[in-house]
C-alpha cells in the first residue's frame, strides 16, 4: 500500500516527539520511562488512521497504548485523531499514547521480553494467496515473536472480516496449543457491541452487514490461571443453578395422603 500525502508530513510528525516515535530501538525495554509510569502497555499492530487506538486511550486512561504502523502519513493522521479525541476531554496532548512508525517484521527490536500486556490485531491484511501466508500477522512466526514480548498477563485480541484469515488464524493458534476464548463468528449479529471500540473499517463493514470475526488468545501464565479460574467458577455456577432448578420443579408423582 502506498500513501500519497501532503508535503511536510515527516516534519509534522517529527515535531510531535511527545506523541510520535520514529525509532523504537532506544525505547526497547524502557517504554514505561517514555510514559512516565508503570501502567500496563497495550499495542495495536497496523493501527491504520488511529481511530481504535485513540478511543481506547481515552476510555482507559490507566493503560498505556502504542499504535504501530509503517507509513508517515498514517502516523500523521493518527496524531490528529488522537489529539482530537483527547481535546474533547479537555486535554491538549494524549498522556497515555504513543504512535510508533515501524515495520512489524522487526517487532523484537521494538519491545523487550515481557514488556507488553496485550496485542490488538484489527483487520490485518489477509494476504489471500497461499504463497504469502508467512506475511499474515497471525502466522506462527509472528505469534512466536508476540509470545516473547508479552508478559505474565499477556493476551492477543484479534478481529477480522476475512473468514479465510480467521480460519487460518484459529488453526495457527491451535497448532501452537494456545488457549482461545470468546470466539465469535458474527460479533455484532444480535446488536452492535458498544462495549468494544470499533475501527474505521469495522464501522463500514457493520453498516454493510458483513460478519466480523473475533477471538481472544490467552498467553501469559497469570492470564491463563485467571481464565481457568473463571471457567471453573462458571461451571460451579451452572451446576448450582441446575441443582436449584431440580429442587424447585414440582413433582409429577401422585400425592400421598393420610385418611382417618
TrEMBL record:
Record's keyword terms, sorted: Methyltransferase, S-adenosyl-L-methionine, Transferase, tRNA processing
Binding site for substrate: 129, 161, 199-202
One GO molecular-function entry: tRNA (guanine(46)-N7)-methyltransferase activity
Gene3D superfamilies cross-referenced by the UniProt entry: Vaccinia Virus protein VP39
Reaction(s) catalysed by this chain's protein: guanosine(46) in tRNA + S-adenosyl-L-methionine = N(7)-methylguanosine(46) in tRNA + S-adenosyl-L-homocysteine
Family: Belongs to the class I-like SAM-binding methyltransferase superfamily. TrmB family.
Protein name (record): tRNA (guanine-N(7)-)-methyltransferase
Record organism: Paenibacillus aurantiacus
Amino acid at each position: 500500500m502506498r500513501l500519497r500525502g501532503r508535503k511536510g508530513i515527516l516534519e509534522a510528525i517529527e515535531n510531535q516527539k511527545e506523541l510520535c516515535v520514529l525509532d523504537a530501538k532506544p525505547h526497547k525495554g524502557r517504554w514505561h520511562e517514555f510514559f512516565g509510569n508503570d501502567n500496563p502497555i497495550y499495542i495495536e499492530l497496523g493501527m491504520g488512521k488511529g481511530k481504535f487506538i485513540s478511543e481506547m486511550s481515552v476510555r482507559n486512561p490507566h493503560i498505556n497504548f502504542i499504535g504501530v504502523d509503517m507509513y508517515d502519513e498514517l502516523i500523521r493522521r493518527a496524531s490528529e485523531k488522537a489529539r482530537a479525541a483527547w481535546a474533547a476531554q479537555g486535554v491538549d496532548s494524549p498522556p497515555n499514547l504513543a504512535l510508533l512508525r515501524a515495520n512489524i517484521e522487526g517487532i523484537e527490536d521494538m519491545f523487550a521480553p515481557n514488556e507488553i500486556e496485550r496485542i490488538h490485531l484489527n483487520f490485518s491484511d489477509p494476504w489471500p494467496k497461499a504463497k504469502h501466508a508467512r506475511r499474515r500477522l497471525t502466522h506462527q512466526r509472528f505469534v512466536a515473536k508476540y509470545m516473547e514480548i508479552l508478559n505474565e498477563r499477556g493476551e492477543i485480541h484479534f478481529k477480522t472480516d476475512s473468514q479465510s484469515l480467521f480460519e487460518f488464524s484459529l488453526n495457527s493458534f491451535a497448532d501452537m496449543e494456545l488457549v482461545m476464548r470468546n470466539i465469535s463468528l458474527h460479533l455484532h449479529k444480535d446488536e452492535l457491541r458498544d462495549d468494544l471500540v470499533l475501527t474505521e473499517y469495522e464501522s463500514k463493514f457493520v453498516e454493510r452487514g458483513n460478519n466480523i470475526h473475533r477471538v481472544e488468545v490467552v498467553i501469559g501464565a497469570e492470564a491463563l490461571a485467571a481464565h481457568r479460574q473463571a471457567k471453573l467458577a462458571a461451571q460451579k455456577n451452572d451446576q448450582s443453578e441446575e441443582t436449584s432448578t431440580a429442587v424447585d420443579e414440582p413433582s409429577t408423582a401422585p400425592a400421598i395422603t393420610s385418611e382417618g
